[in-house]
Amino acid sequence: MNQLIGFLSILRKDMKTYYLKPPNISWGIIFPISWTLMFFAKSESTVDLREILPGVMALSILFGTTSMLSVTITFERKSRSFERLLLAPLSLNLLMLAKTTGAILFGIINAFIPVLFASFMVDLSGINWLSTFLGVFFIAVTSTFLGLFIAVSVKEVFEAQTFSNFFRFPMMFLCGLFIPISSLPTLIRPLPYVLPLTYGADLLKRSINNTGIMPPWISFFVLLAFSFGLFMISTRNIKRKWIY
Amino acid sequence: MSTSIIEVNNLSKQFGDFQAVKEVNFTVEQGEIFAFLGPNGAGKTTTINMLTGLAKPTSGSIRIAGHDGIKDMKRVQQLIGIVPDESNLYADLSGYDNLVFCASLYGMGKNKREERAKQLLEEFGLADTGKRPFKAYSKGMKRKLTIAAGIIHAPTILFLDEPTTGIDVESARQIRRLVKNLNESGTTIFLTTHYIEEAERLCTRVGFIVEGKVVRIDRVVNLMKDYKKEYTIEFTLENHDPSLQETMDQAFPGVRVEQISNQKFRVIPQEKIGVAPFIKFFEDSHKPVYEARIIRPTLEDVFVKITGIEIANMKKEKEGKKK
User: pTM (2 decimals)?
Assistant: First the structure.
């Protein structure tokens, strides 16, 4: 019970202090619209909104969660307020889950904003919503834990942004959203399969347009493994670097 | 009979090739105010970090309130409060929200934490500014709120790292009073400071730490007792006479005479003697005496004698770091 009070309190504080701040709410709205417009701009023919929806959703989550989490944790580390959390009688795993849950929720909300817009413009019938939600959830979890991994690896806020891009841009171009994996040069064709976003995006494509290339259970399993692995590596690094 | 609430044995901390803390041994008794005194880089904060769970000892053992302070740290953290050397609360949250948030980290229920936050804001003289964001507080107010956050869960032991560094005199006095009151209400206090007079005023016992080693630990009265035998008499004369020191050396063989300024002399006799012979000497030399006073040794003198570290340099170094 005591631990739960701490968990909920950290989550509430982060939502209030970071995620529900007007600039971040506007980011959640503007960012998906920009991605949609970008897809329109790049296409020579008429773009099917439903076809681009998995890509817009996946990128909105990826950019939203990795930016927010890596920056907020680095900022709290710099101002030393993060020490206060490390000194509290909360287990490190629960503490890090509390810190990441806010970003996961932020990512999920970010993903459904383009869905909301699309619902006014195109027919969204036939979508497997349960599978879509699970896909969104797992992309949010893996991206957030990637943000955590970045936060633990850097000292300055600007480093967090630079390091985030080091992961985000290759993932964006290799995950099959812009270029189908089968069209990639043979030499780099195995690379997408070591990126969590590939599996999340494929799951969304299958759930929304039935165009995925992998069986959903493989994607779920791999995303679960990525989530667990990234979380464990990050908490181990925290123990090693921050509880020195 | 006093009981040890903190027991530290052969505690060491190594950072690569640098040993920050070297086989430190000490105990803190329940209900006392204990201070670690030492210059920058002496190992004070590293020791506190090891005692509170922010750093892992390289070797040695810690027992706090009967628990293993290394293996059972989460249980220990429930019993201790920590006030770090920097006021590190959340800038955008109000003073009240910061306290309520800190209380929730210790599992306090909603009503209990809100009531306690209000009570502490009142006690610390911050009730009127409780709704203001932390970033709008003055340095002294920030320090007070950080201490309030450290005791929100009524800890058995409070760790205070440099509680009054970098704040104004009035706020420092208020904080010292608050620390004293906390101790009187039963909280054991472990503090680090480089303000010797602060330790002298507040503490039951002090430990001098230099280059990671504890060079002396004792009750303040015991430390002072050893040096009380040495005393100095300071004379302030009406007129300046450059040849006076030489004349005095001849008149009082075995007494060290130091000229402090144009009109001030200090005499340090080898054994305790009264001021009367000196007053008579000055009068006979037609040098009226304005003031004569016995200067008793302070904890600062004791610290300098034991560690060989000049306090002025220590303070300058610390204040420079804070800026």
Answer: 0.83
